[in-house]
Amino acid sequence: MAASMARAAQTWDPAGKWWEAGGGGTAWDSLTFDPELNLMYVGTGNGSPWAHRARSPAGGDNLYLASIVALDPDTGKYVWHYQETPGDNWDYTSTSPMILADLKIDGQPRKVILHAPKDGFFFFVIDRTDGRFISAKNYVDVNWTTGYDANGRPAEVPEARATDKPYDAIPGPYGGHNWQSMSFNPQTGLVYVPAQNVPANLMDDKRWRFNAAAPGALQSNTGWNTGKILGAASPANKPFGRLIAWDPVQHKAAWTQEYVAPWNGGTLTTAGNLVFQGTSDGRLIAYDARNGDKLWETPTGTGVIAAPTTYMVDGKQYVSIAVGWGGAYGAYRRVADREGPGTVYTFALGGKAAMPEFVKARVGELLSGVSYDPANVKAGAGLYVSNCVACHGVPGVDRGGNIPNLGYMHATYIQNLDKFIFKGPAMVRGMPDFSGKLSADDVEKLKAFIQGTADAIRPKAVAGTGQ
């Protein structure tokens, strides 16, 4: 242990007083045990504060941030590590779930760890016997690096680490994949990854001081702070939610499914070659694991982030899922979720139980009647995520409460959206005035996204739905 800590100490600048803010590297999700090798694999978190130069002014890799660390489970002794994002500067944790698999690579069997952390790369990954790097390929667009070299080190884009100007980080701090579980199907050879982007423009916060009050800065007087200014400028990249069936041997997507918003649920794949996933727009969907064809869906009444599970009772197979918002993004926008009780749904072939009444109420009153240009939906999504989602939520997901979900408003309100956005009547209750920040053309794009999203998630009759 002393040797591993001494190795880490060489990668931190003591002038940064990183010990005040904790330094980071917490293990808060992914712990995986290999009984054959008797190794425990730990995924570690981001740096604290986020800004690399604030915690380590002279630079350095800052071991063991954003890493997979192998430990002896009997003694806790360090065995090996692989750092996926050296000197993390963007909240690119490596805590996403890991999958242990035996795959044939270049004709040879290898024991590997499959991992898709927040930094946007699928690590195919490393030989889990000794931590040797095998390969990494980005599963979503990235702009902080041009790729990884043969030694497993990223070739960074210098602008991504600039301290004096905003940078439109791709992926943003919510990651290309977060903690929602992915799943591996040995029959198809594919990994089913909940992928996303939540745009965020970042810049180092020169006002940052540990445990200091600084109005306007992301500081809380408790030591939790980012050292970054989020929203330093309007991000140019667009938000998305996506299910990716990733081929780890060919290093590419075999098929994808696009969603109306980020922060969709974990995946389950079965021996019957199905993939189940819940979505942020309130659906549970089953796909053909081989080609991505949609086979079934049902409304859930609220966004889904958990993964489903399947099991047998008396020879009958069931699929159950716990539905309800959570996590960083879900909790952040939970201000718009006052009527979304957590619910466990169980489904089986031939099931005849009726959906709960609150689900019927939610899915039966979606916005309709607002005319829009479908070409504006994508641009409207970026505007909505940057300006509206934190308070109003994803249109049509949950019912809202004190702050309405715009996907359930009467069409008159959305048709006259400009009257609420610019010096509107809700300003006395805390609604911002977007005069000078948004244009009339932006309002039309917002309308398109709101109505377009409601149209996309409007329930359709699905044969065989059972509960």
Description:
- This protein is globular.
- α6 crosses α10.
- The protein is α+β, with helices and mostly antiparallel strands.
- The chain is 15% helix and 28% strand.
- The termini are far apart.
- A hairpin with a 5-residue loop joins β22 and β23.
- It is built from ten helices and 26 strands.
- Among the domains are: 215 residues, Methanol Dehydrogenase, Chain A; 84 residues, Orthogonal Bundle (Cytochrome Bc1 Complex, Chain D, domain 2), CATH 1.10.760.
- The strands form eight sheets. A four-stranded antiparallel sheet has the order 2-3-5-6, with no helix packed on it. A four-stranded antiparallel sheet has the order 7-8-9-10, with no helix packed on it.
- The C terminus is likely disordered.
Unreliable runs: 220-224, 334-339, 461-467
Q: What structural class should be given to the helix and strand makeup?
A: alpha+beta
Largest sheet data: 4 strands, antiparallel
CATH architecture classification name of one domain: 8 Propeller
| CATH topology (fold) name of one domain | Methanol Dehydrogenase, Chain A
